[in-house]
Amino acid sequence: MSTAVAIVATALVVVALVFFAAGTAGVLRFPDVYNRLHAVTKADNVGLGFLILALVITSPSALIAAKHIAIWIFALITSTTACHLIARAALQRGIEPWRPR
Amino acid sequence: MSSVEIYGAAAALSFGLAVYGAIAARPVIHKLVSLNVMGASVFLLLVAASARPPAAPDPVPHAMVITGIVVTVAATGYAVALIRRMEWERGSGVLPEDAAPGGAASEQPGGGGRERGEGGAPEAENAAEGPTEEGRSPWPGPPRG
Amino acid sequence: MATEVTGALLALDVVLAVSLVGCAAALVATADVFKATVLFIVFGVMMALVWGRLGAVDVALAEAAIGAGITGALLLGAQTAQPARRRGAAARGREHTFQPATPDDAPVYQPARPSRRVAAALAAAAVAGVVLLALSRVPTRHPGLAPILAPHMPDAGAENPVTVVLLSVRAYDTLLEIVVLLAAVIAAWASAVPAAPKPEPPGALLAAATRVMVPVAVLIGGYLLWRGAAAPGGAFQAGAVIAGAGILAAFAGVELPRRGGAGLIRAGLVAATLVFLGAGAYGPARGEPFLHYRGGAAEGLILVIEVVATLSIALSLVGVFMGRPPPRTPERTGGDDEFG
Amino acid sequence: MAWAAAWVIAIPCVAGALAFALRGALRGLFIALGVAGATAAAAALVVFVARDGARDLALGGWLAPLGIRLRADGLSAFFIALQAGVGAIVSGYAAGYFAGDREGKAFWPLWLTLWAGLCGLYLTGDLFNAYVALELIGVTAVGLVAASGGAALVAGLRYLIVTLTGSLLYLAGVALVYAEIGAVDMEAAAQGLGPSPVAHVALALMAAGLLLKTAVFPMHFWLPPAHANAAAPASAILSGLVIKGSFYLLVRIWNDVFSAHADDMLAELMGVLGVAAVIWGSAQAIVAARVKMLVAYSTVAQVGYLLMAFPLGGDAWPGAMYFAAAHGLAKAAMFAVAGAIARELGHDDIAKLGGAAGTLPAGFFAFALAGVSLIGLPPSGGFLGKWLLLSAAADHDHMLYLAAIPAGTLMAAGYVFRVIAPALAELRRAPRPSPWRLWREAPPLVLALAALALGFSLSPALVLLSRGAPFGGGG
Predict the structure, then answer these.
(1) In chain A, whose CA is at the least distance from the CA of C205?
(2) Residues C224 and C324 both lie in one domain
(3) Which of A11-15, C239-243, D13-17, D54-58 comes out lowest in average pLDDT?
(4) Does the ipTM surpass 0.85?
């Protein structure tokens, strides 16, 4: 695990942290459930992508790298479905999307 | 202050907090959540208090904790079933002694569970009615025509 | 390099410990039950990380799959809409659906009476203080049971020491634990609530995701079960993952086979108890004590017990989550022998 | 016969699983076989221990402290005998009580797994295994209570929250024991635990958890509603047997594991709690409105007597165990009769019991006989138990207990006669007795007679109880 790979991996992790922070800030700051869902799902998926990339680079064998990528794909599927279901449930309960006054 | 002592202290503190929650929380679900936190912190106490960092991790407490986790989820699952049943029968998720006087979430309990007298017509109180007229069970059963 | 790493890891431990206690404090202090449940799921994930840090990878898997996953789903499931109240109460006009419209206006409960809270605080302080006192005096001499187990590992029937302890050294604990799970399902089904009126048909996206995720989850469960012999994994973690797939399938409205479905599920639920007792009787049949198996026989028996236990654990967790027995046959779904 | 101990646990377990999975006649057959087999295995174990003394069984061939050790000594065999005796008769009663009733379907699998859990608790020599057995007993006992719905469901949920808290407090103590000596086997703990504060803290936590589960005075709030609202066979099982499980474990760790740490201060506290339980429980029973509530508060009172053995020690231990057995038989009989009263008269309010003995002659006769043992009049088991407690109190000049035991006896007489007197007043025959009446009166009569039979000779029990010297003099 040469130092160059370690540096690139650390940089990727930092980028991932930025995205996670953006997603969390979105959850805290946005006015209604739809915006919050939008923010957290998008930002966290991309953040996780960078994190997985960092892990793939530093993984000892191809099999483990493949497992990391599989984890990312399943996380994408489940978080997107969850976001969709929550948004649908909110809509059915009649929560009006936020409109700037 | 090795990491094992940190986790031991964290286990003791969250154990205390969970004891507070189990007693002071009014809705039974909240008591149940506190009980799960109590279980997790006792398991952490079991492993952290006996771990000796330079030595390899001891598998015996690990197996005990896995056994404990499964026992806790079984008891939690049953408690949830009882809470759902109590809400369905009495409309309140709070035990009678915790009910706030005239509070929003508390109502007077429904009919008591008397013995079904041989003489009186046995009133079908519990789920003997079965789900037929209440619609389809989300349990993956064959859809009724 | 080593000192910074241990320094950094120590910092990680402090952060994890503080966030663990912080989650527990926030969870206990909040009056909103929904918030407490979400905080508990975060607590479960934090706890899984702590188990990883303590070198207990099997326990980390179990905590993540069962502690945070299934228990979180159970607690959230407890707060969803209820079917219309029974004719008796409903007839009295108190139509009550305990349904939080959105987390914001979920019924927030007033805190308990001050006297109750003071008593709780005293009890909590006493217990925590006493445990902390004991922790400060714990000696550092005894090496635990690992050195005693090590010489027996070669003919114990599996390489992963935790699996050996779970299914051979302390197999009796695991047997009782499986009986507890079975008893929980029986008791939960005895207090069943009739089905919700009309679960809305699953959206296209949920159906598509289920078609992808359920087979993958079962595959992962099988992998965890198989790897359990040599590496962290095993029946309980695999059972929890497959139970997750089962619950997802139930949400997506997957149907049971038409006839005999309910009988099959009951057989699956009791299979682990009966097979474990049968494996236990293998020893006395050869003049050895109960639950005695070594070498080749141990490998075979441990594998059989693990496979059947995974099946029963997955069925039990889904059964407890559903909260009611599966309908027997289309014609006689309701009626008196619903439980019988 | 070394693994007779395993059969005592395995047979009810298998019967419980089959009682859940099967249906119809086959199910009834396996239930009957399970009860008969478990009773036979228990009898074999008791004879075996009485004849050859205490016996250890290292499960899976793994020697302690690594593996789990089942230990059948005098104390375990005594409680297993109580479990089998009361359990078999109450099963007969339940067969009549639940005849073809939906609630009965859930009763049998839960009752048989509870039976296995209790026998597992009595036989285990491992502290963590005792935790798993306590959880099994907790979940199944709550299942028996909550199956009746309504007020029983609320009482069952409260009971579940309390029993889970108690088990986790107990487990915290076990965690500290493992931290101190690196083993959870009782014998290893008995030798390894030095006079360090960790052992004292572990004992305090374990005792707190077990006292909570045994419904000892300040922490008894969950017991009366649970035992009074449950179905009659469930109440008989809970009051007669389940309460004895956590009490037995407390006695076991007090005498075996923490014998060096059981200092006087904690013992005196237990004694005072016991006296308070006797006074408070009896007072509540005297003012109770329903027969089942009266009998439930009587359980809270009688547990008080059992706790008095801690400060008295020595002779008081066999006395307390004998009293526990007599109480198990008498209390199961009383709850069975209370169930028969509720089923025959449609209610069990004491105020409206006028002349009820005409409807249930054998039932009230059994209630009276059980009352004799509960009060402690000779020739009943209760009398001999109290006699041993009193003589131990006299030896140590404990004035508190010398006063408390007779006072409790008088109050017990008070609440027993509160039920008997109106029932025997103007006798009136019931319009048409239900077909199951005899089936519901015979089992309590047998139980009550057994409680009296205990009063005739103390020696066989003392001989059994002395096997393996469970009360000190070598663990």
Answers:
(1) A81
(2) yes
(3) D54-58
(4) yes
Strands (DSSP E) along chain A, which ranges?
none
List phi, psi (to 5°) of C191: -110, 45
Q: Alpha-carbon distance D124 to D190, whole Å?
A: 15
Q: How high is the pLDDT of residue C257? A: 63
Strands (E), C118-158: none
Q: Does B86 touch chain D (CB under 8 A)?
A: yes
| DSSP one-letter string for D298-342 | HHHHHHHHHHTHHHH-TTHHHHHHHHHHHHHHHHHHHHHHHHHHH
Query: In this predicted model, what pLDDT tens digit does every residue of C17-30 receive, in sequence order?
Result: 999 999 999 999 98
Q: How far, rounded to the nearest angstrom, does the alpha carbon of residue D191 sit from its chain's CA centroid? A: 29
Q: Are residues C171 and C54 in the same domain?
A: no
Please give the Cα distance from D369 to C62 (Å, whole number): 53
CA B131 vs CA A96, C133, C333: distances in Å: 35, 54, 7
CB D328 within 8 A of CB D86: yes
Asked if residue D7 has pLDDT above 50, the reply is: yes
The verdict on a CB contact (< 8 Å) between B68 and D171 is yes
**Higher confidence at residue C265 or residue B128?**
C265
Domains parsed from chain B with CATH numbers: 1-94 (1.10.287.3510)
Token pair in block for residue A30: 């946005």
| pLDDT above 60 for C335 | no
Same domain, C191 and C299: yes
Token pair, residue A33, equals 């459930």
Q: Give the mean pLDDT of chain D.
A: 89
- List all residues 6 or more positions away from D291 whose beta carbon is below 8 Å from its beta carbon: D338, D341, D342, D348, D349, D350, D353, D419
Determine how many CB atoms are found less than 10 A away from the CB of residue D460: 10
Q: What pLDDT does residue A1 have?
A: 62
Mutate to test the interface with D, among C179, C189, C288, C316 (most CBs of D within 10 A): C179
The parent domain of residue C219 ranges over: 150-340
What is the torsion angle, in degrees rounded to the nearest 10, for the CA atoms of residue B122, residue B126, residue B131 and residue B134? Answer: 90
In angstroms, the CA C126 to CA D29 distance is: 52
Determine the pLDDT at residue D256: 86
Residues 121-140 of C with CB under 8 A from B: 121, 123-125, 127-129, 131-132, 135, 138, 140
Same domain, C302 and C224: yes
Q: What is the pLDDT of residues C295-333, one digit of tens each?
A: 888 888 899 999 999 999 999 999 999 888 887 655 444
First to last CA, chain C: 65
Residue C1 has pLDDT above 60, yes or no: no
How many domains, in total, are found in chain C? 2
> What would the two tokens of residue D255 be?
């005498």
Give the pLDDT score at B135. 34
| pTM for the model | 0.90
